[in-house]
Amino acid sequence: MTTSTRSRAPGRTVPWLTLTRFVIVIASLVVAFWHLRGELIEDVQQGSDIGYVFAIPVLGILAAVGMALRRGAELPIYDRQTDIIVGLLGLLSTAALLGLLVQRYRYEYEVLHLDIVAAPLFLLSMSILLFGLRPVLRFWPVWVLVLLMCLPVLYRYAVITLGGSRPAHAVAMLVPAAVAAAIATGRTRRRALAGGILALIAGGVAVLVMRTWFRDAPLLAYELIPPIVGTYTATTVMYFNQRGWRSVKPLDRAVLPHTAKRSWSAAAAVVFSTGLLMLISVPDEYLISSPDMPQLAVAQSPAVVPGWQQLAAREYPWAKRFFGSRTTWVREQWQAQRGNPAWDKESRRRRIMVDIVRSESAHTIERYPEFMLYRLNQPRVSPPIRIDLGHGITARLNTVLDDRRLLSWTWLSWYWQGPGGAQRISLISADNHLPDAEFPQPEPSVLATFENLMNQILRGNAVVLDPESDAGDPESEHKDRDMLTGIAREIVRTGAGQDE
Q: Torsion over CA of 222, 223, 227 and 233, rounded to 10 degrees?
């Protein structure tokens, strides 16, 4: 047998054109989203749970390989004009998502991470340009799985429902792992069901092993090891089962060539869009000042300042599911012991709410933005005012308006930390001075967050949730600024352990 004959033997022909297109697609994705890669790594190092996204490429590749092994011959029918039109629409959508929505919602960036959704959309668009619409859509179950996994809100909602612990993160990832295994092994419905169940079992065993012998393993390990072990085990077992446990060759058949015609315009669109998206960086983070005070005794709540008394206190157990098992959220209701005409023209005894979130580090508290964890309908938050509370503490003052209920509050917040942990303290006063005045209630809700987001998209600056943004009403009147500032300075003075 001659060399030329051997090179054309089934299973040995190297599809160089297809491989080249794959390399271009992956290289363009890495280059275009290089800033996102750095942001994700930094977030993981600071204790974020966003590290689960590193499992998405592995699960997607295993599912896609399983589907590719079932690929049959295709008719060489391609409309490259349609491919280019659809691909360009996808690229324009990606650019709009990164350049408009991500930049517009900086306050919700860490929670929504819309740029993660943009990555598979960009990958899909490039694949359509280089490979054609019909071959790419053959893998539609994989694309749907990847796009859903790139929505951190869905993953975090599942984790919160399961309790918020490290094993809960692992269990939440077993669902997409089972779906990926079912897609990869789904020659028949029965085989798909068997593959999904096998992935759940293998992943569940990995979770039990980690929980028993590696309880203190990093959160990233809980998010990556069980789902990858589950999917890989299921696909490997089902692969050998399909071949009767005899052949282990990955390519025991002819590699079907890709028949889509070359298109220089499609290649040019890929190169141009990659360079364009590379210039769109992730939004600048709001730097939250959290001074480290060695003398600060971080208690569950600060002492009530002179001239005020505590009427009630309530702890929210759900805070542990959002911020971790070592987090507490306490709300206290304070009332002035005497009326003050500077605070109320009728000298009524004012009331305020004091919310204290305490955790082991400031990064943990920052995982969910403050205003996203309150029940607010069509909110508008004024631009911030910085107030020096002394001892290196700077607070942020905002006026918050609820357009739907026609209510308003003055909101003063600051962070600090000491040897015992970190705290975020928020002082909230109502514009209504009557005893039955309503205050924003801590009530985390995915639906409420989505409603506020849609209100911001549809109504623009009429609905502003960002307390750090300059957008909003710069003429807002901070009615209780002096009252809240006096209380905050007394809390800081007492917490710092110094007398003035």
A: -50
Distance of CA 443 to the CA centre of its chain: 19
State how far the Cα of 363 lies from the Cα of 156, in Å rounded to an integer.
17
Q: Name the residue type at position 211.
A: R
Both tokens of 367, joined, read 């995982």
Provide the 3-class DSSP secondary structure of residue 367.
coil
- End-to-end Cα spacing for the chain: 96
What is the gyration radius of the CA atoms in the chain, in angstroms?
28
- Residue 180 near residue 63 (C-beta atoms within 8 A): yes
Other Cβ atoms within 10 Å of 192 Cβ, number: 19
Determine the Cα–Cα distance for residues 358 and 95; give it in Å rounded to an integer.
Answer: 39
25-63 tens-digit pLDDT:
999 999 999 988 888 998 888 878 899 999 999 999 999
| Distance separating alpha carbons of residues 238 and 247, to the nearest angstrom | 13
Neighbours of 356 (CB within 10 A): 20
Please state, in angstroms and rounded to a whole number, the distance separating the CA atoms of residues 390 and 396: 13
CA gap 349, 363 in Å, rounded: 37
Retrieve residue 31's tokens.
């280059």
- State the pTM of this model: 0.85
Give the chain's residues under pLDDT 70: 1-15, 71-78, 247-260, 285-287, 289, 294, 297-301, 445-463, 470-476, 497-500
Show the CA angle centred on residue 466, arms to residues 460 and 470, nearest 5°. Answer: 80
The two most distant CA atoms of the chain are separated, in Å, by 105
Q: Residue 22: which residues within 8 A CB-CB, separation 6 or more?
A: none
In this structure, the number of other CB atoms found within 10 A of the CB of residue 238 comes to 23
Give the tokens for residue 393. 């503490």
For the record, the structure tokens of 415 come out as 């962070």
Nearest to 377, CA basis, from 411, 408, 416, 403: 403
Separation CA 411–CA 398 (nearest Å): 5
Cβ neighbours around 173 below 10 Å, total: 29
* DSSP reduced 3-state for 432: coil
What's the DSSP call for residue 100? I
DSSP 310: E
Which DSSP symbol is given to 97?
I
Centre a 10 Å sphere on the Cβ of residue 53 and count the other Cβ atoms it contains: 21
